[in-house]
């Protein structure tokens, strides 16, 4: 399941609460395009801003509309009891895997992060993807910790925000059952070429055909064509950019993000509107 | 109210839930010592790990046991609706002020942070202290943003984790009604000497007499004496250190922190036990 193209759609809000119909409408073309999995309630799905109850409901909704495509749901939270309830709800909903970042307010120590993954993976009946995202968690995995967590039972993948210099060395220290995934859409083409197994993709959540063309093409040209979009992703955060795109396309109500988060506004939003046309995003 | 020594006690847990009796027992000596305010549910009070309901209950408990000492409660959260409910609950409990950091998962932009403070302060009936804490929020205030937020109605103080090089320049850009507070206990003595108005203190939440001696002495010697303790604070985080101290003193049940957070363990915990004696903490 943790292979190929995994699409991470937005979780659209309307007047501050989950907009189920808009969410279903977002899922439909992604499912029809035939992505390899759906990454629901990832960072792009605003999981950290939603309650345990909302997240359970959204997981059920996603599974109900995913046809045969495996659904992966993030269970990250600050408190263990919330994480375990999210895991229970997700598994009861019928997800195929879960995703978890070491969400921190007090930045976790390495021991604390390891204990967290050990405790959570012990209680799972579906595989887990380790989500390494320093920008949102403030937590940085050392190589040692990452390999130790990856060796825990039920770990099936690692979502990395970087391409290691020596990928073969990383591979050699991972079990064959653990796949390597890339986050940060602008890195995806080169990461897949270097031997990554899966692209955890923001782009694919709204423009699945464009993302599939990159994921299946096996060369960088299609990705390089999108450099003006990647530049916006890097500068403003892919969540703000892709939400602005969905708002402008009329796929979600504006504002679709939880206050105080704001989709792209002003001049860069206008620049994005022009990119739709010039880049032929689909 | 935002002056002198503000004590930030722990919020002790017992088997993962709020331990009201231990909390009251922690407050008593702090109140009796005559600190200038109580900072409830600060970072040291694990606010980010507690539900809105728990935080309302803890605010009411603190006000009920604070005698005449003003109570300040943190209302920080990721979602605006949670923040506003926390503010309502705190005000209904009878707090004298609130404290708010720009809590982030997606790191806020400057516009987002300003909009957040503008929206929240507009709805307050008590003054707010701006809480600048990059280590926990991942958010860094620019000087411009900090001054803009400080000029909003109902802002009464800034809690800074650094001593600006030119304090008089900072003062000149702040209203007379906004006080400057220091966080990071090891910096407090020099910050107070440099002209800060208030010390937002972790130490004072457990060792109020020792903190008062530093706050009232007007020289650095008492603080310098505690350098071995400050070294532990800086290295392991003051929350993990002060919790280990409270656990070892039998004031709270171990583990008192929300999993996966852990108080100081192993060798540094033993070193801390020796410091109690050698530093005569009280």
Automatic annotation (TrEMBL), chains A, B:
Molecular function GO labels: 4-hydroxy-tetrahydrodipicolinate synthase activity
Annotated CDD domains: DHDPS-like
SMART domains tied to this protein: DHDPS
Keyword field contains Lyase: yes
Binding site for pyruvate: 44
Keywords per UniProt: Lyase
SUPFAM superfamilies per UniProt: Aldolase
Catalytic residues of the enzyme: 131, 159
Statement: the UniProt record of this protein carries the keyword Lyase: yes
Family, similarity comment: Belongs to the DapA family.
Protein name: Dihydrodipicolinate synthase family protein
